[in-house]
Amino acid sequence: MKSKLAILSLAIAVPTAALAQDSLQVVDNTEYPNTFSSGSANVQRFNQSSKRFNDWSISFGAGVPLMQSADLTSIKNGNGKNLFGYSAYFSVDKAITHAFGLKLQYDRGETRQGWFNTKDDAPANASVTQQVGARTQYDAISLLGDINFSNLLRRVDNKSPYRWALHGYAGVGTLAYRAYQKDEFGQRLMTEVKPFSGFSFFGQAGAGLKYKISNRVDLEGRVMYVVTTDDQFDGGGEQYSAINRREDQVSDNFFNATLGLSINLGRHDSHLMWHDPLQEIYYKMDVLESKVNDLEVCKSGDADNDGVCDDWDRQLDTPAGARVDGAGVALDVDMDGVIDLYDKCVTVPGPVENQGCPTGPTNNTGGMVSEAETKLDGIEFDLNSDKILPSNTPILNNAVNYINSSNGSYTVIGATDTRGTEAYNQNLSEKRARNVRDYLVRNGVEASKLNSKGNGKKDLKYPECDPASKCPEWKNRANRRVYFEAK
Where is the signal peptide (predicted)? Predict the structure, then answer.
């Protein structure tokens, strides 16, 4: 079965090589004034012409405002009625990212409220119950922040395009209004006029649900809550009138429910607020997968059926079932010369004759070891070094105990691999043997029981490693050793 790992490695390697070649080209800034070299590829500067999404739009709509928190209300007032006004809005919208934007919005409308029983507020000598109604015509300019929750909270594994989006809005602005009240004769009296000024701040916040009709047009329903910061907005009259003393509000607030359209402006097909950044990643993965699938059909053939075309395959006789790298070479994780397919110990080096697993203890002649040789395990050294490694001290401490408990004497023998000259290796092997002998003496072994010698690069545990390049490194390391021989 073909290895997907090998195909993917090859697919990535080919475009990478192409990029490396591109980095050698010189960019003519006269012909491409917005292009520069980053060292590995030509990069186009970001400017207006490089944008791929529309980020401007206009929105407009109409709706119904309902006074909610005031002395005169629109919802279920004292007379049990709901009074509906009207409103309209227009905004210019700028998308900053796929999840955040700004709106400069103008609102115009009229709230209708009142019709409550004023009997409790009438003077003591009043003989009739009063009914009061009011209307407030307003104009407002505000700056709103727009958060696209659907893009902000979109799951990374959701690859499907979407047509619905939940937005949240909040902002502040300035407000102007004219409030009217009807008296008992039905005549309309102006109770308050407040023009635009630098101190007439108000705030609004809410949510909207958008539906994508097309790439150019969105339909949206919104519900906004408007805080006027003004106790006379409802038309109840001056601050200390009988009406405005009914409640303790310092701000008359209302809901504004609207339905509107957004028109996306620009020459591109889609708007940034409808863009899912991960869609580009999904697309690139699909393109890469298609290229990988194309590589499965090799014009030059695949003789060993390892998933790498013969034109790219450095090992045309890979055994069936073997895992391969991007060049079609069978994997050998522990680099012991036995490929993983046949290696019984994949992560531990071992000889070919033992199916890639470490062998049991043997002596230099290949025979079974004696009890002394088992107790006196040899140690290995780093390349060009006679330093005893910390990992070898437990082995040498065990040798101290064994030699002190025995009656015999021993020779400490040093050896090297085949790298370097004969004279250099002879000297290095003698230093290794002498350092081990000195360690044993310092730790309690009688000096009379030990002598040392070096055999240079002629004493190989693995004779086939001459030269060293013929063997994996674990075999060469095994040749760089010190071992013990009974006299």
Answer: 1-20
